[in-house]
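Morning. Coffee machine broken again, so started the prediction first thing and wrote up yesterday's gels while waiting. Chain of 461 residues, entered below exactly as on the submission form.
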Amino acid sequence: MTLIVRSLLGALLALVVGTVAWASEPTAPEARPDPSPVLVVSSPTDPARQLLAVPAIAASASASSSSPDDEVVVHPDDLRQPWWGTGAALTDSSVQLLAHRPDLVRDLYDAHQPGGARLNLLRLPLSATDFSPRLWTWRLDGTTARPVRAERAAVALARAIRAQRPGLRVVGAPWSAPASMKTSGTVRGGALSDSALGAYADLLVGQVRWLASHGLPLWAVTLGNEPGYSSDYASMAMSDAQMAALALRVTPALDSAGTRLWALDHNWSDRGRVDALLGAAGAAFDGAAFHCYGGDPGQMAELPVPRLVTECTGTTGSATGTFAWDARNLVARAVAAGSSGLMMWNLALDPAHGPVDPGSLWGCRTCRGLLTVGPEGVVREPEFFTLAHLSRAADPGARVVGVDGPSWLNLAAFRNRDGTVGVFGQNSTGSTRTVHFTAGATSLSYEVGPGEMFTFRAPLS
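Came back before lunch.
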């Protein structure tokens, strides 16, 4: 990932794209054991209020404490883009920490774990990253791709996660081609050689085919992580012309495998590169992938293809600040700009923010995973709760819908296939507020503490 401090067709075309994608989603809704309305909250400062279900306020008390400024109204018939889900990356560091911890896999991926994140997306690196104790890439023997031991370990764990979470969607992303295909002659930094375009295309297709034949089909893939960035860890720059040519080469095989191809996989500020890629090879791309390290979530808006955030990480910021930033930028504003999903960076890291590539000076030394796993126990970091609340509001296959609310609430709303609506929100003020929800036939009020994230979920009728 880039070591940068996090910066803070029109509506009709978006509706058409969303309708097509909605129709292609699985038809079976996820089962919910209790269809009753519920509000779940997480406090950034009070461990006793983490993923805690709280009771509604009595009607008489609600009437005296609420005001028009506290009203949240969901518009369930205002259908927008489909929702693909939430997830994070299975880096080598995460493999090392999770491989023998089925309890933590359940906390991350079990769809019904009471205190779990309930993720359904998994980003699988197809080479080493800055969170790899050793450098590695796949080998290409003719047109056959072969993984090394590190990748086989990740695949084994990914298959275990898939068993835990049926319907898991795996997204592949290489950080680097083999050294022989690069201008630098090394996995660390440099750019893809023009002369290696054919071989790299064969490698990408070979990876997709090998993974499918070994029980891990890729739902989507990108041509390379952060193609505008070259550093002293596994990384590789690519030009727009190279990526357009690669997309046209690999698309027939990816289509046959049922694997989507997403453009870019870099920052919001690189929106211009997405436009260039769609202009040069638009028919080859099924979507666009963005990171949060530069630019603004609004730069994703009004694309003719679906889009989502595939990487963002917390560092050493407080839970209070992280809750507010994530809710505003990664959820409320990103969803408003058309995002169909959210994926964070590492699933798990240790208390020293690693293990990391020991030969790199520029890799991230302050990143934190969803979980911090150490000898003294496991810590659920703020980003864990961002995804946990989003997962509770929106099942995979939901649709984003319209929602109105006060400016001090960071909001996104969803219509789920099980007949419920879900609202993700965050109280950005420093005081407890009473929030009144209206969704279909449901009209209830709840107290939300200062800085708290929440999920409201209720049946439409």
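Confidence is low (pLDDT under 50) at residues 1-27. Going to sketch it on the whiteboard this afternoon.
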